[in-house]
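Re: that chain you flagged

S.,

Sorry for the slow reply, it's been a week of failed gels. I finally had a moment to sit down with the sequence you sent. For the record, here it is as I used it:
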Amino acid sequence: MQVLTLCQFLFTVAAYDSANEVQSMTHTVKLHRRVLTLAQRRARSRMRRSVLPLHSSSQKSKMNGGHASDYFGTISIGSPPQDFLVLFDTGSGNLLVPSTLCDDKSCLKHKRFNSSLSSSLKDIAFSNKPDTPVGDDGDRDVVNLGFGTGKVDGVIMKDKVCIGSICSHVDFVAATDMSDEPWMTAPFDGVLGLGLPKLSENPAFNTFFRISKEKAVKRNIFSVFLGATDAEESEITFGQYKKERMASDLFWVPVSKEGFWQVKLEDVTIANEKMKLCHGNCSVVVDTGTSLIAGPTEIVNMLIDKLNVSSDCSNFNKLPNIGFVIQGHIMNLSPEDYVDRNGISDCGVSLMTQDVDPSEGPMWILGDPFLRKYYTVYDQEKKQVGFALAAHSHVNRKTQTLLIDLGMGGVSHRHSRRVARLRASQIEGHVF
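Prediction finished late last night. Pasting the structure tokens below so you have them in one place:
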């Protein structure tokens, strides 16, 4: 297959405070991208198939289709602040950055945290005692974290962590050893886990939990909008969600199992027809750290057979939507979202196989292709995820057919349910 240059999302931050009553209580991080090759993307993708969460890279073809990915932003740690480029990852729960205690090539390639330069730094002894400093004997935990086929060893530190103007004191892992893969080729320095506290070493390690507990945000939520094109802005907003980013009503789904942002999946559809693949035990993990969509091997292979995508792209324009039924809504993806298309005559299904412990039931991971289509809101206090069709410039709010509300018997347009309720109440002689 011919190797073409593809785009990878890289975030530098142009951060600004949201126009709210208390500016320090909400913050939006704007995102930008850079270029990698298809060969590099495939190498990362293969490397990360083995464990959940995935952190694979996939980019957008210069021509037709493909899947851009890898979302980064700048945070600061310490006093005075030291800046780091981190992956905002809803599929993990700890903050991890390289430190000057690490001399591995993979650490030297990145910005390293220098604890001796921070007046607010505290060395922490044990992960189960997140406020206890290292004693005179020097005894302390070494934390081991796995990322795909790679690993990180590190010690625990506590310091001031800021996302723009939103700050809190957080326990984090300062890396002392980092494997070559994936870190040597990673364009980010570290990872900021935005999963629920059960994914963290301890709640004190969970940055957003700490920010919320210290009441540094207006609401205990954050929201993600990923641009559909290079020209369209992408952003993560802490403390609120933005109605202008939604092309439909927002609907909430309770987390089915704490840790990941994991919700129940009712079924999978092809051309809005249910495949009857779930029997009350399916789920999806909404993961900003994954660049593709991954599912159980048996189901993915069945979908590939049914879709029958021609390798020469000859049937591309006739391919159906595939959808995920969540909380009575079909959330469709178009062929542009699930097919890798290089040029006009080289196509392949981009769905990945990912099997987990059978006791978990069939589980899907919804990464960037899904997150570019749908605006997502993460409510840590109420343990729920909000979904809405993303308001891209090419999306017509009145005529879109991607998000289907099965309870309404049709597509979900913004405010349509409110209007329906209003009309019903008027018929009954009441206006609510």
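What I noticed first: The chain has eight helices and 32 strands.

Talk soon,
D.
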